[in-house]
Amino acid sequence: MDPAKAEAYFKYRTTMIVIYLTIGFFASYLVVFFAKGLSSITVMGIPFHYYMGAQGAVVIFIILLFVNAVISDKIDKKFGFDPKFVDSTNQTVD
Amino acid sequence: MDGQFTVSLILIVATFSLYIGIAIFNRARATSDFYVAGRGVPPVFNGMAIGADWMSAASFIGMAGTVMALGYDGLAYIMGWTGGYLLLTFLLAPQLRKYGRYTVPEFIGDRYRSNTARLIAAIATIIISFTYSVGQLSGSGVVIGRLLEVNTATGTMIGVVLIAFYSAMGGMKGITWTQVAQYLVLIVAYLIPVIFMSLQLTQNPAPWLSYGQIIQELQVLDQQLGITEYVVPFTEATKWQFLALMFTLMAGTAGLPHVIVRFYTVATMKAARWSGAWALLFIGLLYLSAPAYAAFSRFILMTEVAGSSLTSLPAWTQAWIDTGELSLADSNGDGILQWTEIMISNDIVVMATPEIANLGVFIIGLMAAGAMAAALSTAGGLMIAISAALSHDIYFRSINPNASEKKRLAVGRWSIVLATVFAGLIALNPPGAITQIVAWAFALASGSFFPALFLGVWWKRANGPGVIAGMIVGLTVTLSYIFAAKYGGFTILGIIDTGAGVFGATAAILTNIIVSLSTAPPTQEAQDEVTDLRYPEQVQYKNGEVWLKEEQK
């Protein structure tokens, strides 16, 4: 396999992970850090910092994980790591 | 002995029979069945099993109560425990799956080419899982004791027998399907009361959308009473403690051996990614509901219980007062119960609220069955981790490498039985509050496993001496900080014992890097193995080149 292609695959995946983690960091640590300043904004009648802690951050985390799963599958396919191969091993293992 | 008792007992017996039936049906027949369920678990079901494994008595029984008691500051638990899945799924799980071992200590030993590192990791696994399971067993003791109207010690022993039986019987394969059933029981048990309370209080069946209204009313009530406001941040601890606790719970989640091993039960890296996503979705159902649960409970207590006459208290109060977890003292002697006169333990809020809200015997019984499912499933997963560390990492890999499969299975089963009984004995008289013990387990995991796994997967230069020094320093710093903060009153930036993981993890990462760089690099073969983890299963990295494997068969 072409080493440049392999390198590109790894870079692509790593970049995506850095993006996801940065979003996760903003949704949790940064909101907590600025909690007092953000409390004047309200979402569904709840102060923003409280809403993020109780629901917003968790929902964002879940979305990030599903986006990662879908996009990773697409990247795998694009680079020719055929998912059918994976499924066939799946059955022999069981 | 009344209708409530009968209904609860029937529900608990029915769910237990289901778990045991599943365990018998899926008996382990080979070593790989026992440790990693034959590696054939589909991601959605694995997600449910991770959810049940993960959501312990602390999540089910304790979390809503903690949020209710601490207000905003309690949300560190919600964000920390869910955010850990980002670290786990993005940074560790797929790579660990590709490396393909049975246990976490085995990965550390083989990746770092060090038997000493494997032994330290096995011992750390035992310490962390054992600490954690003491909390679970004492939690199950409280629930069984309350329902069967026996004392907590007897309840704990009943829990011990059940856990020892089905973990030893089924191994990982039995536990996986048992945990799927347990997830379904616990989530239904958690959602039904919160949906009914939402209907009662707001006429809206979706608590996640309706509780904003209750939060607003709580803010008004707080101001009328002149007490600490529920939504105001950092009233119970400093901002740094909040951030440190959140980090400790996240890194600890990513390093908990019994959770990581669940990612070994799927077939591929792809399946590991999907497992992580499904797991957090299933966990999110409970975690998103917990703040609503907390707000509803507080609202009901403030408006319906507070203000009533002490002589006309409902029947549910007496049973909980008897357990010592609730006290209603009329300190100003006016015959009326004020909000400030209600002292309710965090750990009974979830169990008691359905009774307080008058939801009926069936729902209260279901709640008890759900709490038991949460405690038993986590304890079961922890026992497998302890058993694997003892029978696989220590016995098979260090003491008797020629042991037959049968012998190893036997050692695995006996270590589960012994570990459960031993943990049960300690749980008869637990050394601290359940949530506190659980937080320590997370701090220890974030100080030992998280740095070792993170650097092991992402930095090929990390070597054996580095990881040994890192784990020892990380554990030492974490333990010292817990003791210094808890007993010595020593704190940095107001960070107390539950946030100790932030110091442990930092110290361990720095130590690992410094020691690795000042000693010889790992062999080329070991470094190539780490590079290989960048790619899916079909791709292999060998001698500086990347190969696409031929399809077999």
Automatic annotation (TrEMBL), chain B:
It is found in: Membrane. It holds the Pfam family SSF. Coiled coil: none annotated. Gene3D superfamilies: Sodium/glucose cotransporter. The keyword Lipid metabolism does not apply. Belongs to the sodium:solute symporter (SSF) (TC 2.A.21) family. This is Cation acetate symporter. It comes from Halobacillus amylolyticus.
